[in-house]
Amino acid sequence: QSQFDAAVAKLDGSIPSLTDHQIEVDLAELVATLSEGHSRLSLPGLPDPMSDVVEIVPSEYPALAFHRLPVRFYQFSDGLFVIAATPEYRSLIGSRVVQIADKPAQTALNAVRPVINRDNDMGAMLIAPDFVATPEILSSVHVADDSSSVTLSLQSNTSSASNVVLAPLSTDSLASWIRVDDRAPNLSAEYEPASRTLLARIHVIQDAPNETVAQFAARLGELAGKHNVQRTVIDFRDCHGGDNQKFRALLLEIVRNEKVNRPGALFVLINRGTFSAAVNSASDLERLSNAIFIGEPTAGAPNSWGDPKRVTLPNSGLVARISTIYWRDWTTNLTRPWIAPDIRAPVSSADYFAGRDPAVAAALSFPEVQDFSGIVKKLIEAGGGAPSIVRLYYQRKNDPDWAGASTQDAMENAGQAFLARKSYDDAFLMFAINFKDYPDSLGASIQQVQSAQRAAPNDAELGKLAAKLGAMKDRH
């Protein structure tokens, strides 16, 4: 409270020396100090990136509106790129952004971060590319000298970097945008016979004009019943939320459907655009289904404030939204910043512009194996970590259909795999869980560590692992 009050007093004292846009940016930064994604000042003239349906924020006073450059950016694993443009600048699509004004692209992205309302760093990664395409914001954070034009240094695959000077679009412009990817409908489901994949995409968790979420869930179940489904993929990428209650119908269909909710055959795709009710929905699937998560960490935190109340500031007409309800996750970890994927599938610019989808490819390449040992083995081979294995382990142990099945070999092999990776804490966790269920397994675990010690006698961390397992044996 004291820090917030001090920031208010500082802004209040600075107002006489600031432009209107600088005041708006500082107000947005003030709300962003709450460090949660739903509470925000919606800057007029710009899309509100954390709304369920992204729309341009209207402005009561035209002078307070922000303008956008005629290009849109996205931060891929290999840098910031132009992914869309107005027809006049379509040739810029696919170019890497080297500099914005006279600042390196990453410096500009870092400069706008304090203005961004977010739960975590993925939220900043989502919104920052939009903010660095806004001249008034660039000027307010001292990246650009003024907001009348912005110079970009761009580099294509076939040439060296060159400069282009862009003037912002007018606020009343109904600009058409050329982009590589197509916008997905609200709710879509299809069966792909070649890969025997049932694919459901959820862009917003809301009823569509011609179909409710409950009807969509029933349609998904009908598709599963009609076809020889090898795997099901539920795509929550770029789903900014919706209605938590409406997801119940889809959750029940997924969990109850034996053709869909099969171990090793149900995948949920998430990324930096997964936010709000979409994160709550992913959390439900994490807890109640056999899903394996693929993609990027979510922009929303599983434990977070939401359901923002709209507040219109009386003099400027600016619209703020302030959260009112705290949503609790199913885990005991109150501080986990996001739902992390079990298999990471970052998107590079080359993937995007070639139309490749690494997350879908990872789901399609996951072998058709439903036994726990095979799933654990393939998940670790795909880069999965200890938290993923532990979650799947407890799901298996608490499933009546599998309660009597042994997990001993699976967890022993997982420990050996993490040992080979030199992920010693993860290896210990696997061995310790296995020992709790199968005390006789400890001998094999110790033998594996001793063998590793003979190969690397000077590895101090490996020695610590051996000591912990030895102490466990002594206590037993």
Please give the structural blueprint.
Elements: H1 2-14, H2 20-32, E1 40-42, E2 71-76, E3 79-85, E4 96-100, E5 103-104, H3 105-112, H4 121-131, H5 135-140, E6 150-155, E7 162-166, E8 178-179, E9 187-192, E10 197-202, H6 213-226, E11 231-235, H7 247-256, E12 266-270, H8 277-288, E13 292-295, E14 304-306, E15 309-312, E16 319-322, E17 325-327, E18 343-344, H9 349-354, H10 358-365, H11 372-381, H12 386-397, H13 408-420, H14 424-437, H15 441-455, H16 460-475
Parallel strand pairs: 10-11, 11-12, 12-13, 13-18
Antiparallel strand pairs: 1-16, 2-3, 3-8, 4-5, 4-6, 6-7, 9-10, 14-17, 15-16
Question: What does the model show?
Answer:
- It is a single chain.
- By secondary structure, the protein is an alpha+beta fold.
- Helix content is 38%, strand content 16%.
- The protein has helices at residues 2-14, 20-32, 105-112, 121-131, 135-140, 213-226, 247-256, 277-288, 349-354, 358-365, 372-381, 386-397, 408-420, 424-437, 441-455, 460-475, and strands spanning 40-42, 71-76, 79-85, 96-100, 103-104, 150-155, 162-166, 178-179, 187-192, 197-202, 231-235, 266-270, 292-295, 304-306, 309-312, 319-322, 325-327, 343-344.
- The chain is globular.
- The termini are far apart.
